[in-house]
Amino acid sequence: MSENIAKTKQGGLAGIIAGESKICTCGLGNGLNYYGYDIKDLAANCEFEEVAYLLNRGELPNERELIDFRRVIKAQRGLSKELKDLIRAVPKSANPMNLMQLVVSALGALEPEKDNFSNQNEKIARLLGVLPSALCYWYHWVSYGEEIEFNTDYESIAGYFLSNLRQKEPKEDYIKALNCSLILYAEHEFNASTFTARVCASTRSDIFSAVAAAIGSLRGPLHGGANEAAMHLIESFDSVEDAIIGVNNMLERKELLMGFGHRVYGVGGDPRNAIIKEWSRKLGGDTDLFKVSEAIEMVMKDKKPNLPPNADFYSASCYHFMGIPTDLFTPIFVLSRVSGWTAHIKEQRANNKLIRPNSLYIGPEPREFVPMGERK
Ligand code: COA
């Protein structure tokens, strides 16, 4: 007990084992594995849907299973009139993460999960299928005042999303890069949003409530919002020289540089970074923006070697080079991480115990109640 209290005092539950999971190892030997498969192998060889299947079932699909899984997700892309009406009511000024939360909550109201969770897999397919549609529909409505005609040619979520976002055929490399990024973002053990989802699921709540709660946690710049914050940081510098001076000044002022550092990975860094950095280089390596990104990384390596870039830093430029608007970066994270959240919700449900820790009380000693008339 006293050791637990000492750890709690470090803050943020750092280093606390908060439960068992078979889904992912994060930071063991600086590795990242989904159900035992190295993220490097998954990113190099898989489609995102293969990885979503792995997270959902615990095994990679064979060819037939992957075709079926994709077909099921594809059939779940449609937006009902009620959903469209709700989405159109969300103004352009809104944070798109609130849109994502609204859509997920609306699904809970309009297409509820059964109380015994027997249709949880159908609901997971619904989330994987419909969220890209909702985001593209909203983006076009608030940007151009138009309801888009969905291009349904693409089987993959990456191709479907990009073709509908841009309303044109995406370059093959863009689809591959987004596919890779979705794999990298899919799962990450007991991170803040996944833990939120598990806490909510542990009360035996429905899957939509647990996912909506997780989206709220992902929104913050210390978590998923870091990819957008990293983009703003990179774009705030006009040149490599400007970036070197600017980052040094920020460090002197003890400001946070978004896209650097990680609670679990040590100096060895986030294994996802090298993978997404290569995609960023491939899509925009000759641009000033990429050179500025590398200059920021170089100063950080020099001044803060214990804070290497995390997956969010080069995801930012990678998405930017694909022509994705910055305020959609974190919602894209949702399109991917929903596979990890729902895997954890299923795991939590399979062996549920209400998650309800204690706090270490540091408030006032018991004291006499003061009636209203006697209060100062
Ligand atoms: N830039 C500058 N300094 C940083 C930093 C960063 N990105 N990340 C951590 N630090 C500094 C902290 O200011 C702190 O300094 P101090 O000891 O002088 O107070 C020290 O490093 C330890 O950081 P701390 O915030 O206690 O670590 P943590 O484990 O709680 O935080 C993160 C982990 C990810 C929240 C943190 O590194 C961060 O805020 N990074 C930027 C946001 C980000 O990229 N999030 C995405 C994560 S995948």
UniProtKB/TrEMBL annotation:
| Single GO molecular function | 2-methylcitrate synthase activity
So what does this thing catalyse? oxaloacetate + acetyl-CoA + H2O = citrate + CoA + H(+)
Annotated metabolic or biological route of this protein: Carbohydrate metabolism; tricarboxylic acid cycle; isocitrate from oxaloacetate: step 1/2
Return any one Pfam family short name.
Answer: Citrate_synt
Source species, domain of life:
Bacteria
Q: Coiled-coil annotation: which residues?
A: none
The record ties this protein, via InterPro entries, to: 2-MeCitrate/Citrate_synth_II (IPR011278), Citrate_synth-like_lrg_a-sub (IPR016142), Citrate_synth-like_sm_a-sub (IPR016143), Citrate_synthase (IPR002020), Citrate_synthase_bac-typ (IPR024176), Citrate_synthase_sf (IPR036969)
Q: Where is the active site?
A: 262, 312
What's a GO biological-process term for it?
A: carbohydrate metabolic process
Q: Which UniProt keywords apply?
A: Acyltransferase, Transferase, Tricarboxylic acid cycle
SUPFAM superfamilies from the xrefs? Citrate synthase (SSF48256)
What does the entry list under GO cellular component? Answer: cytoplasm
Task: State the PANTHER family in the record.
Answer: CITRATE SYNTHASE (PTHR11739), CITRATE SYNTHASE-RELATED PROTEIN DDB_G0287281 (PTHR11739:SF25)
As for family, the record states: Belongs to the citrate synthase family.
**Protein name listed in UniProt:** Citrate synthase
What's the name of its gene?
Answer: prpC
